[in-house]
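Progress note, sequence design subtask.
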C-alpha cells in the first residue's frame, strides 16, 4: 500500500509545529491538546483514505484515552459518530468540556461490544498502561472486520519518553527522572514511572503488530516526522532514539 494521503500530510512544517506545542502540555493544555486534536483528526482521515478509500464521514470512531474532550469537536466536524473511553474521571472533566458519548472505562477491558466500530485509535496512551499490547488487542476486538485500529505511542528512549520529567533524565532511569522532578518542583510528576508511565519500545510495538492474530499491519511510521524520515522505523536501535512516537496502523481481517 502506498499511503499517499498520509505521506502528503507529513511535512516538515507540520512536524515543527507539533513538536513546538509540547512546551504547552502542562501550562496551556488547551493549546497543546487543541492543536493535537485537529492534527489527529486530519491524520486518521488520511489513514482512512489510504486504507479503505473513504473519508471518516459517517464512520463510528472510538478514541481510547479521550481525556478532557478536546478531540470530540475535531472528529465530529468531519462527520463521524465519535465516542471516547477514558479511565480517569478527573481527566474527563479537566477542561470543563462535556462530551456526549464519553464513557468511563479501561483500555485494557473496553466496555464495548465486539465488532462495534469502524475506526478506533489511541493517541499517546500505550506508554501509560502496564500492558499496552493487551490494550491493542482490545482495540482490535471492538473493530469491525475491514476496519482500522491506530495505536500511536511515545517511545521511552526518544527525547520525550520521560514526558514532563525532562529531556535527558529518563536516560539515567525512570526512578531517577521521577525523583529529580520531585526535588526540583516539590511535588511528584503527573506521569509517575512504574505507575502511570512505562518503558515501551519501538521494537515491542512492531513485533506485536506483526504477530497479532486477526489483523494485518498495513503501516508503521513516526508520527511527528516528515515522510522522508519514515525510514527510521526500519532501523533497529536507531528507531528507539529517533522515532519518538510510533504509529501502528492495523486492518482487522476477521
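Output:
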Amino acid at each position: 500500500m502506498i499511503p499517499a494521503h498520509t505521506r502528503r500530510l507529513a511535512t516538515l512544517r507540520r512536524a515543527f509545529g507539533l513538536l513546538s506545542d509540547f512546551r504547552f502540555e502542562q501550562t496551556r493544555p488547551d493549546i497543546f491538546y487543541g492543536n493535537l486534536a485537529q492534527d489527529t483528526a486530519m491524520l486518521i482521515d488520511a489513514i482512512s483514505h489510504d486504507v479503505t478509500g473513504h473519508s471518516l464521514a459517517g464512520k463510528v470512531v472510538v478514541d481510547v484515552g479521550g481525556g478532557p474532550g478536546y478531540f470530540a469537536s475535531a472528529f465530529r466536524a468531519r462527520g463521524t459518530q465519535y465516542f471516547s473511553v477514558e479511565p480517569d474521571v478527573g481527566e474527563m472533566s479537566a477542561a470543563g468540556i462535556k462530551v456526549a458519548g464519553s464513557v468511563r472505562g479501561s483500555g485494557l477491558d473496553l466496555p464495548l461490544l465486539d465488532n462495534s466500530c469502524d475506526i478506533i485509535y489511541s493517541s499517546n496512551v500505550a506508554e501509560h498502561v502496564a500492558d499496552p499490547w493487551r490494550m491493542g488487542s482490545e482495540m482490535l476486538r471492538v473493530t469491525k472486520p475491514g476496519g482500522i485500529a491506530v495505536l500511536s505511542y511515545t517511545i521511552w528512549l526518544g527525547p520525550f519518553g520521560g514526558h514532563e520529567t525532562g529531556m535527558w533524565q529518563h536516560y539515567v532511569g525512570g526512578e531517577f527522572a521521577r525523583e529529580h522532578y520531585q526535588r526540583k518542583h516539590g511535588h511528584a510528576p503527573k506521569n509517575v514511572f512504574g505507575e502511570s508511565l512505562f518503558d515501551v519500545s519501538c521494537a515491542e510495538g512492531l513485533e506485536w503488530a506483526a504477530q497479532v492474530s486477526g489483523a494485518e499491519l498495513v503501516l508503521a511510521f513516526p508520527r511527528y516526522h516528515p515522510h522522508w524520515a519514515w525510514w527510521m522505523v526500519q532501523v533497529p536501535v536507531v528507531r528507539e532514539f529517533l522515532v519518538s512516537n510510533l504509529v501502528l496502523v492495523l486492518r482487522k481481517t476477521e
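The longest helix spans residues 29-52. Work on this subtask will continue into the next period as scheduled.
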